[in-house]
Every structure is written in structure tokens, then in C-alpha cells.
Design goal:
heterodimer; A: about 190 residues; alpha/beta; Rossmann fold; Arc Repressor Mutant, subunit A; 2 domains; five-stranded parallel beta sheet; 11 helices; about 10% strand; B: about 240 residues; mainly alpha; globular
Chain lengths: ~190, ~240
């Protein structure tokens, strides 16, 4: 998950990380702590990439994220921060890092086995938001319709779809429909 | 040393011992067992098959790394078509109905109304496969047969090629593997374990078997048949009139 208000940085980073990488990326431009918190909880990302300023938010909920969820924090550094403040991060991305270095940084974190065991991140359990996307998807909604219904971008819907496919190892809509019925996400009558 | 390719001098019995899945090829090519020590070449000659065509099929089935060199062996086309048509019949008349029956029994045993979804999904898969095979049997193969006849009668100046080309077939050759893979995963990972007996294992083995048979089938179409027909089309292209 990338949280960054600058369109250039956010979309540039997304572009680099999506390129030939099989990872789902959720991009948020929200800045309000409450919005950010709910976006995070819905997504439960394995990695959160944001400016150190976000991580230092005084907001209680944002502070509680680190205690409640196992995720890697990556600082997106584009202005001066005191080195002590940067030490808390699992990794850093600097403005002058090239494409390869940025990819390597993120892939290294994704390969970390400790990451897989995080109760809230790994396994095949879908997050609340992913379940919602799945429900709309198997009812025959297009990506655009799902985005409108959930007030998120089509980019984010696609990222959720990728994550659903990765977690369940099911790629067709028919297959996802069986999963949804078996898990009572939709009823058999709705199919 | 591990074998990486079968040749005409290999004994057919030995090949079956090395990979029993090859038995279905013999059935599809009309070769009966009781082969004695006959080599691939001898078997092919006895059954009026092109040794090269039989070897291509055996090697594509036997070796994942095998990279077929089709050249301009247009004479292989009838044997390849025979194989593909007979495997279509095998899928539609034997394998797919057998899996359908086992899935039906499995769902019945589960006593879970939601599990009926698995059956619905398999039926959808059957629909897709049947449609795909029907398209090949009714449109693609007759076209190739016509093209091959033209090639044979070229000296007599056969009819001009029709507007259909194998390129269109390439476009239609869509992916039906996804659904099969999903079904396997649902049985392995997501369907609650409530049944007694071994039906789920039976269904899974059949699905894996069907998948691997279909993969070899697709390779024969994509790596042998289509390249061969493309070259033949170019060769039969009417020469521009220089009047």
C-alpha cells in the first residue's frame, strides 16, 4: 500500500513496482488520519510505503497500527529527516533511487518469511474489503462498477483482485463464485 | 544417461515402460498392443503412419523440454489430425463424463447444498470444452483437410484457397485451462472435508490426468499443427498474375 499525496511520486512508484511484478498494489491519496486508518484496516497490506511524516502522525489510531498489525514499514524519503527518525523503518526509498533499487528493496521485504506468518497479513484469509470486492465481482459487476460502489479507484479494485487471486489461488470468475458460495459470501440463489 | 528424445529405433514396448501415459497415444493412432520387440519405425510402417509424425507426438507427450522441428513435413498432417480428432472423442465421450459422474457422487456425499456449485462449475467447464472442440472439429479440421487435398492435387490446379486462414484459429484458441486449475484448487484447498471415502482423491487424479493430456494436446496443436499449416498456406498462396 502506498500512501502519498503527490501524484507524481505515488503513480511513479506504483508504475515501477507493478512492472513485471506479480504484486497487488493499493494506492491511497487520502491524508486524513481516520480515512488512512480505515483504508489500512480494509487492505491489511504487507507493506506500507509512506513519508516518515505519516508514520509520525500523532493520531492514536495510526500509532496503534504497528501494534495491531504485522506489516513492513517503508519510508519514502524526499526531504530532510533526522537519521534517528529513519532508523525505525524496515527499509527506505529515497527520491534518487533508481528503478532496480526500488524493486529490490520491496522484493526483499516480500521474500521475508517472517512476513508470511503475520496473522493479519498472510494465509488465505481475505480482508473485509477484499471480501466486499469478491462479493461484487461474482455478482457480475465490472471493475468500474465495483470502484463506484466502494468509492475507490479502479486501480485499487484491480489490486484487490490480484490479492484475492494470489491468496485463494483461483483465477476465473466461475472458480471465485464457487469459493464465494462455499464460504457464504453470496448465496447459491444469487448465482 | 536420461533419455531426452525417442527415436525410430527405440522399442515401442520400452517407451511404454518409460511413460505409461503414452498408451493413450497408441489407442488414438489405432495401434493395438502385443507389439513384441517392434521399433517405433516398424510399428508406424505396419499401421501406415508417418514415423516422423508418430515420433513428434510421442516426444511432445514424453518430454516437457522437447522442441519439435516441423520443417515442411506436410505429409504429417493427416496423422496429426487423426490423433487430435481421436483425442477429442476420448475427452468428450470417456474422460469428461467419467469425471462428471464422480463429481456428482462426491457432491451428493457432502450433504451441503452449497457444494452443488462445484458441479455447476464443472458443467460450465464441459460447455466451454465442448464448444471449443466443436469449433475445431467442424471448422478448423475440415479447413486443414481441404488445404491438404489442395496441396496433394496442386499439379492438377486445385481450387483457390478460401478466405479462412489458420491465423483466425489462433485467435479462437482461447484459454480453457484456468477453470480446470481452479476446480483442482477448490477440491484441494477450499471444499470442506465432510465426505467419507476416496472420491475426492479419485476426482483430483482424474482432473490432473485430464489437464496433462490437454496440455500435450494443446502443444501438438500450437507447436506442430499451426506452424505446419501456416507454411502450407504460404506455399499455396496464389502466385500474382503478371499479365
Amino acid at each position: 500500500m502506498i500512501v502519498e499525496p503527490s501524484d507524481t511520486l505515488r503513480e511513479g512508484l506504483e508504475c515501477i513496482l507493478t512492472d513485471r511484478n506479480n504484486i497487488g498494489i493499493v494506492v491511497e491519496h487520502c491524508w486524513e488520519p481516520a480515512e488512512l486508518y480505515s483504508a489500512f484496516v480494509n487492505t491489511q497490506p504487507r507493506i506500507l510505503i509512506a513519508s516518515p511524516a505519516v508514520f509520525e502522525s500523532r493520531d492514536k489510531q495510526i500509532k496503534s497500527l504497528r501494534e495491531k498489525y504485522a506489516f513492513h514499514s517503508v519510508g519514502l524519503v524526499y526531504s530532510y529527516f533526522h537519521p534517528d527518525r529513519l532508523e525505525e523503518f524496515d527499509a527506505l526509498i529515497h527520491l534518487n533511487d533508481n528503478r532496480e533499487k526500488i524493486k529490490a528493496t520491496v522484493n526483499k521485504l516480500l521474500a521475508d518469511p517472517a512476513d508470511q506468518s503475520g496473522a493479519n497479513t498472510g494465509g488465505d484469509t481475505l480482508s473485509a474489503r477484499e471480501t466486499e470486492v469478491l462479493r461484487l465481482l461474482v455478482r457480475g459487476n465490472s471493475t468500474k462498477k465495483i470502484a463506484e460502489a466502494l468509492f475507490i479507484s479502479t486501480h485499487t479494485v484491480n489490486a484487490h483482485r490480484k490479492n484475492i487471486i494470489r491468496k485463494l489461488d483461483i483465477q476465473t470468475v466461475s472458480g471465485l463464485t464457487i469459493y464465494a458460495v462455499l464460504n457464504n459470501i453470496i448465496s447459491l440463489e444469487e448465482v | 544417461m536420461q533419455k531426452t528424445v525417442f527415436t525410430g529405433e527405440d522399442s515401442m514396448a520400452g517407451i511404454i515402460h518409460s511413460n505409461y501415459r503414452i498408451l493413450v497415444i497408441l489407442e488414438r493412432m489405432g495401434i493395438k498392443l502385443g507389439l513384441g520387440n517392434q521399433t517405433v519405425e516398424e510399428v508406424a510402417t505396419q499401421h501406415q503412419l508417418q514415423t516422423g509424425a508418430l515420433l513428434l507426438i510421442l516426444n511432445l507427450f514424453g518430454f516437457k523440454q522437447y522442441n519439435p522441428e516441423v520443417g515442411k513435413h506436410y505429409a504429417f498432417i493427416p496423422d496429426i489430425l487423426r490423433y487430435l480428432k481421436n483425442s477429442h472423442s476420448y475427452f468428450l465421450e470417456q474422460k469428461i463424463p467419467s469425471i462428471q459422474q464422480h463429481i456428482h457422487q462426491l457432491v451428493f456425499q457432502l450433504h451441503d447444498s452449497n457444494a452443488a456449485m462445484v458441479e455447476l462449475c464443472y458443467n460450465k467447464y464441459i460447455e466451454e470444452v465442448t464448444e471449443h472442440i466443436g469449433y475445431e472439429n467442424e471448422i478448423v479440421f475440415p479447413y486443414i483437410e481441404q488445404l491438404f487435398r489442395m496441396y496433394q492435387n496442386r499439379a492438377n490446379g486445385g481450387p483457390a484457397p478460401e478466405s479462412y486462414t489458420i491465423g483466425i484459429y489462433g485467435e479462437h484458441h482461447e484459454d480453457i485451462e484456468g477453470l480446470l486449475n481452479d476446480l483442482k484448487n477448490i477440491l484441494i484447498r477450499h471444499l470442506p472435508q465432510k465426505e467419507t471415502g476416496n472420491l475426492r482423491r479419485v476426482v483430483l487424479q482424474e482432473l490432473f490426468d485430464l489437464e496433462s493430456d490437454l496440455n500435450s494436446h494443446t502443444r501438438i496443436e500450437n507447436e506442430v499443427l499451426i506452424p505446419l499449416v501456416k507454411k502450407l498456406e504460404q506455399e499455396l498462396e496464389p502466385v500474382p498474375d503478371n499479365r
